[in-house]
Amino acid sequence: MENANNVSEFILLGLTQNQDLQKVFFGLFLVFYSAIVLGNLLIIVTVKSSPNLNSPMYFFLSYLSLVDICYSSVTTPKLISDFLVKKKTISFIGCIAQLFGFHFFGCTEIFLLTVMAYDRYIAICKPLHYTTIMNKTVCSWMVVASWIGGLLHSIIQTVFTTHLPFCGPNEIDHYFCDVQPLLKLACTDTYIAGLIVFADSGIISLSSFLLLSVSYILILISLRTHSSEGRLKALSTCASHIIVVILFFGPCIFIYMRPSTTFSEDKSVAVFYTVITPMLNPLIYTLRNQEVKNAMRKLWKKKTTLGGK
């Protein structure tokens, strides 16, 4: 597949041009990616195999872990392999596929984090109606809606990008294919396309973040009427989610809530939401959650017992 001007491949400039630093980064990011896959798989297996973790919160958490694995897998393996080669190329169709997957899973994660905040709001502010409102059917439809929302967003980004003419140069100043670096390479006026990217990606990030903020403001107001013990338990449950939201949304808003321009810091900022946050999510949700830690211990004991037999 080639676009209208026969650009068959792009050259990725990567995170750095320093050869020695690339060797260090190869080992470092290989460890990061292994931690992402193993950590999030552990969350999924623990939730699916533990009867005690059957609440909507853990149902959403297992899907968040699945999305994290998919999301990081779109960019990180290519980034790791590129550290070992001098010329980092990606085909036109490979670039578009990477762009599609990145926005698909990234937007799905945004919607899932928003759904998880709504779940916490219902659990804390309307506890008597929680099981009625957040029943299994509703939770399943929320997950499906998150995937569909991510798909629609990704289709919009991909369609507009593939219709841009590229006639050189074909060097992308990034370590993966994203809309804004590609807009810089298009040999046409990209003002309208830039506005569409801003309106789609930026507004989704900002509006979801505002909804999350409103949810937690209402939760904090509601907690004033709770006992000190109940207040601490609720805050402990919400703290993990708030940390993940800040780590993920902060860099996203920085990148997408501005006109279609690129800065030298963009690559470093992108590392946070493509690698660091998916890697930290399992740690954040397990280290601050006694139920998950207990479930993991039981799962480990069961495994060792069966292994001993």
Automatic annotation (TrEMBL):
One function term, GO molecular function aspect: olfactory receptor activity
Domain G-protein coupled receptors family 1 profile: 39-285
InterPro entries the UniProt entry points to: GPCR_Rhodpsn, GPCR_Rhodpsn_7TM, Olfact_rcpt, Olfactory_Receptors
Gene this chain is encoded by: LOC129324468
Membrane topology, record value: Multi-pass membrane protein
Protein name: Olfactory receptor
GO cellular component, one term: plasma membrane
Transmembrane parts of this sequence: 24-45, 57-74, 90-118, 138-156, 191-223, 235-257, 269-287
Keyword Membrane: yes
Protein's organism: Eublepharis macularius (Leopard gecko)
Keyword RNA-binding: no
Domain of life: Eukaryota
Location of this chain's protein in the cell: Cell membrane; Membrane
Record-stated family: Belongs to the G-protein coupled receptor 1 family.
Pfam families: 7tm_4 (PF13853)
CDD domains for this protein: 7tmA_OR4A-like (cd15939)
